[in-house]
Structures are given as C-alpha cells and as structure tokens.
C-alpha cells in the first residue's frame, strides 16, 4: 500500500472505508456492465483523485470476479446496511443532541398525562426554560456524556428551578439544581458570606450529577427511584420500599407511597422529556442552541471587584452575575474559588487586561480612622466586607482595635446598587416589588421570629418570608428590616396586640434549674396559657438554660 493511502486511511473509520469500497465496487460493476466500446470512454470521462484511484488499484477486479448486472441489488443492500450502521451526523444544535441521547422509558401513566397537560397549557413557561438554559445546556450535556447517564437529566434543572441560577426555595434550596445547605456542603459546595457554590452552575452541576450517580447505584440502577431520592431523600424512598415489601407489593417507583411532591416529580421530568422529544408534534418550537461551548472558566488568582471584572470583559454586570451566580457580594471570595466564568469570545481580551492590572488595583481601598465605640464587625458591615478580611489585610491577630488608629479596608469601586445581583440587591428588589395591600416596614427586635412577627400582623409566615426573599427557616438578625403587606382594610397591629391588657414591657427569661411553667407564670403574674402562646411551647416541661419570652406589666412586678 502506498504511503499516501496509509496516512489518509488512518483518518477514516472501518465502517466508512467499507462503505467507500462498496461504492467503488458498485461503480466498477456499473462500468463492467457497459458495452466494450463504451467502457474505455466511460472510465476516462470520470477523473478520480489520488486516493480514489489508489483504492481502486488496491482491489482490482480479475476476470473471474467481474460483477454481473444481476448482483447489483445484493451490493446495494450491503451498502444500505453499512450506511445505516454509521454514527449519526453531528446534531444541528444542543437540543437535537439531547434528544438523540434520551434513554429513559416513558410509561403510559395518568400522572405523566397530568403534567403533560399543564405544560401544554403553559407554552410561555417552556419558552422561558429554553431561554434560560441556553448558556448552560452544552456544558450540562458534556458533563452528562462524561458519565454516560440518560440525557433526560439535562432537563432536571427545568423541574427544580426553571433554570434560574438565583432560585431559592422555602426549603432553603438554592441554584438550578436546588441543593439544600447540608447536602451542598457534603458534595463540596462551599457556602459563606462571599460565595455560595450551590448557585455556581459549573460546580453545582458536577455535584448534582455525582449525587445522582450515587443514588442510582444505591437503587440498583433504577433511575426513577434515584430521581425520587434526589427530591425527597434516599431514606424516604427506602422507607416506602420497605413498607411495600412488608405488604408484598411491587417496589417500583410507580407503586410506592411517596410525598405528593415526589409523586409528581418524576412524572414532571418525563413529561418534559416527552415534549422535547416530539417538540414538533406538541407545537413547541425549539430555540436553536449551538452544540458548542458558550463559556469558559478563567483562573483569576485572587480577589477581584466584579464591577471591574465586568468592565474588563466588556459585559453588562447583570450578565456577569448570571454566569457567576455563586458570588454573593460585590467581589469574588478572598479565599477562593479564584475563578470567573465568561463567554468564550470575552476570555482572551479579559485575560490580557487582567495581566496588565496591578495587584493593588484589583480592589478599591479606603483608609478608615477608628472611632470610639467601633468594632471590627460594625466597621465590616458598614463597608460591605467581613471582619476576617479586615484582619487579614491589616495583619491583626484578634478583634481588638484602638480609637484613633487607621485600618485599610477593601470597598466596592461602584455604589452598592450597581451590583444588581449581589445578595442584598436581590433581596431589595424582592422587597420593593409591588403587591396587593398596604406595605409597611418592621425592624426586627431581639427574640423575634418570622412566626411571631407574622402572627402579630395577621399574615402568613410563609408569605412574610417570600416578601423578603427568605425561606421560613432562615434566621433573623436584630435590626434587620422586613417588608410586610397587609390587607387595605386591616388596621395597624404590632406585637403589643398579642400582650395582655396593661402590658408595658417585654423581657426574656433564662430558665433555671427547678423552674416550671407554673412557677414562672406565678412569679411574673401571667398565665401558663400566655407563656405557651408567646413561646409556642407544646409540652409542659422546660430545660435549664432555655430562654423564654414574657410580656409583663411593670406596675404589677415586685422584682
């Protein structure tokens, strides 16, 4: 074989070479069937390139092997089989790639039908999912391919969060994959004041797929059970399986008694997969998303102001935050991760500008003179940073500071409202959203909880949390301002409305050894029922060290 053919043939797979040989055999067979007079002119009128010529020369047809016209249908059938076995052509866009790799079985089930009906009635929702998925779909599919898992998993963020990087649920789950804090930490997603890895699309995608693979292994390769466990926890699913086994019932997903949300969870994903699989049949146009990387991750080495990063990348800061949703504040985390996700076409210009930027220019610095009564935590809060970072910058070993001395403090280069998707700005946007009713502000006091504040204003504590961009279980801070929306006809109320007649003051009492509800009630001249109501105490026992809240009439006290 010639050297040129050797080098060319290595670029072709065996199926392709076989197909080429069959094609050339068919051509020669056709030529062989021509009359002898025309045979020579037919060959000379069709010039062949070097590779084609050499291929024909390698497999010459001897006189005994000449193909007669009757054998042509057999050759055509062989060629058809080879072509059919060739790999599918490269998908036109990422949705095609996803659909070609669907692997889950979609049974005929009324629960799936119910979800299908909902999606069909909400085409705008499906459109929004496509728009939000556009920057991330290729990356997610790449990660799925690495693990050889069903491509339907790429639609799970649509079920979890509608592909919103800043999604936050009442259960304190965050990001497109909706990790709760504990599970996020278990899978290596860092969470602190500066950064929340649950919202980092790159890190959380890898963590979510790792988690799903682990669940799939726990449930012996059953993806439906694994998905159910992702929603409600592996323990919940195992308990349901155990109950069915005791009753000699089937233990597949569709036969289990699971929480309502989990019972609808897998059908919701399968309904989405069904729609995307046959998008044309469902009348849903698919937005073309290129089957190629949209972004790349850049190593930035150390902390960087995000407004400055956006300027160097020539990006609106909103887009920078959406691609880097893990960052909570105006700058990246001083302790890392030191990375920034950028559109591919902005990576090189950004790298060049970053390399030319002096280290001290990455942040804006303020020289602050310590005042009497200052503390590191107060100074840090006032400047949108942390006491830890101030200590690091100023090489302080502890929290002791002296009035009159100076501190070097890193501060944002722009006004804080410029950082539109920083945590505080997102909360402010939610609080400023117009709603029905009368809006008022409440300043959190020591001992308050969402439940007591909501009860005092006759509103739902879940709604109160939602109005303020919180989950019901989130802690409150003294001095924090909450927005409350009340009915227009409702008169103004306060915590005083919960107190007995004549109350003038609220206090907190630390339970001592030997204390009981009746003894404390007698001491402060209140009723046991009031004590239970003010502190949501269900039983009759207290623990030493426990703090309880009381509303007392100071005129009746003998303390």
What does this 3D model show about the protein?
The chain has 559 residues and is mostly helical. Helix content is 45%, strand content 8%. It has 25 helices and 8 strands. The chain has helices spanning 3-9, 14-32, 36-44, 50-58, 72-85, 94-100, 110-121, 123-133, 137-147, 156-161, 181-186, 201-218, 223-232, 234-246, 260-277, 306-313, 317-323, 344-356, 376-382, 387-394, 423-431, 450-456, 461-467, 517-524, 528-535; strands at 295-299, 339-343, 364-369, 406-411, 438-443, 481-486, 505-510, 547-552. The radius of gyration is 34 Å and the shape is globular. The model is unreliable at 1-16, 33-72, 490-504 and 554-559 (pLDDT under 50).
């Amino acid at each position: 074989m010639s050297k040129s053919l050797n080098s060319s043939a290595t670029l072709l797979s065996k199926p392709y070479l076989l197909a080429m040989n069959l094609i050339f055999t068919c051509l020669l067979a056709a030529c062989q069937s021509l009359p002898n007079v025309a045979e020579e002119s037919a060959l000379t009128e069709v010039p062949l390139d070097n590779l084609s010529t050499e291929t024909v020369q390698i497999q010459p047809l001897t006189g005994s092997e000449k193909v007669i016209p009757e054998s042509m249908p057999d050759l055509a059938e062989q060629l058809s089989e080879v072509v059919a076995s060739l790999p599918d052509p490269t998908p036109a866009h990422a949705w095609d790639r996803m659909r070609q790799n669907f692997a889950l079985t979609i049974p005929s089930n009324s629960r799936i039908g119910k979800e299908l009906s909902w999606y069909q009635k909400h085409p705008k929702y499906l459109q929004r999912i496509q728009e939000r998925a556009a920057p991330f779909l290729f990356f997610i599919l790449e990660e799925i391919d690495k693990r050889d898992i069903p491509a339907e998993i790429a639609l799970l963020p649509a079920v979890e969060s509608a592909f919103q990087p800043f999604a936050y649920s009442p259960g304190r789950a965050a990001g497109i994959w909706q990790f709760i804090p504990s599970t996020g930490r278990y899978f290596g997603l860092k969470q602190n004041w500066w950064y929340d890895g649950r919202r980092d699309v790159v890190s959380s995608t890898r963590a979510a797929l790792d988690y799903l693979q682990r669940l799939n292994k726990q449930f012996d390769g059953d993806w439906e059970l694994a998905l159910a466990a992702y929603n409600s926890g592996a323990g919940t699913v195992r308990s349901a399986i155990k109950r069915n086994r005791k009753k000699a019932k089937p233990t597949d997903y569709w036969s289990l008694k699971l929480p309502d949300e989990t019972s609808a969870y897998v059908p919701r994903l399968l309904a989405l997969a069904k729609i995307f699989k046959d998008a044309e049949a469902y009348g849903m146009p698919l937005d073309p998303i290129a089957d190629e990387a949209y972004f790349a991750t850049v190593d930035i080495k150390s902390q960087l102001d995000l407004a400055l990063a956006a300027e160097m990348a020539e990006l609106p800061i909103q887009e920078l935050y959406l691609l880097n949703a893990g960052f909570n504040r105006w700058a990246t985390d001083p302790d890392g991760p030191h990375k920034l996700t950028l559109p591919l076409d902005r990576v090189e210009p950004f790298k060049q500008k970053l390399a030319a930027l002096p280290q001290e220019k990455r942040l804006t610095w303020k020289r602050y003179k310590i005042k009497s009564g200052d503390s590191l935590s107060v100074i840090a809060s006032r400047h949108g940073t942390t006491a830890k970072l101030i200590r690091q910058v100023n090489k302080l070993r502890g929290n002791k500071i002296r009035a009159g001395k100076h501190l070097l403090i890193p501060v944002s280069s722009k006004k804080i409202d410029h950082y539109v998707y920083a945590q505080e700005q997102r909360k402010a946007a939610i609080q400023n959203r117009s709603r029905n009713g009368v809006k008022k502000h409440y300043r959190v006091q020591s001992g308050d909880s969402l439940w007591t504040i909501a009860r005092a204003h006759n509103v739902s504590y879940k709604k109160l949390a939602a109005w303020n961009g919180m989950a019901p279980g989130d802690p409150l801070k003294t001095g924090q301002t909450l927005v409350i929306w009340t009915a227009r006809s409702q008169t103004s109320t306060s915590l005083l409305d919960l107190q007995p007649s004549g109350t003038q003051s609220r206090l907190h009492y630390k339970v001592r050894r030997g204390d009981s509800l009746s003894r404390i009630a007698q001491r402060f001249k209140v009723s046991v029922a009031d004590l239970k109501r003010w502190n949501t105490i269900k039983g009759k026992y207290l623990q030493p060290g426990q703090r309880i809240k009381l509303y007392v009439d100071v005129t009746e006290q003998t303390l």
